Sequence to fold (222 residues):
Amino acid sequence: MVYIYNVLLLLLVIVYTPVHLIKLCFSEKYRKSTLARLGFQKIPRLATEKNTYWIHSVSVGETQVAGTLAQELLKRQPDAKIVISTITETGQAVAKKIPGVAATFYYPVDFSWLANSMLRKLKPDAVFIVETDLWFNLLNGAKNKDIPAFLVNGKISETTLRRYKQFPKLSEMLLSPFHQFFIQSEAYYERFAEYGLDKTKMTIAGNVKLDSEAPVVNESTK
Fold:
């Protein structure tokens, strides 16, 4: 499955590259992130550090949630090393302003060799995914290395639920690496439950964007 996914992803990159290059010619958007998302960026080596946590978000809103979570983790473990990855340049700008964060970087195209390289360098004690940005090779790599993954501020749309039902084996591979799901609301909880997610793995934690409180993650959930 990893091989097939990598091949399909590579084909998608090849097809989209000419379009992306045209966009770069006429807009400054993505100019800073393009090479980084292809793997040309410096990733800190934190292999010898303890209490290292990797938080992944997409853009501004999700990264604000990442910031709230980072502050909660640092409050509980002042010696923790927090790293934050983002997809967009605006998200990266927000991440760089979060106090106490050890490093920020762009999450690259989800090739297995790039995801596994980052996991080897960072050796996180846990991976936190904010909301909906689920990447197969990142989650699969974490699972293979026995690194617990948590979904924070989780939500699921009706469209995504239908797709999960249409492709149950694929969705199981995407969701099985998670140890715990911290869900935004009762409605999203019911959708995850309708899909068949284990209710013992789900907690309604509220919308962190609105509440500014991070979910509690303790040893029992790892």
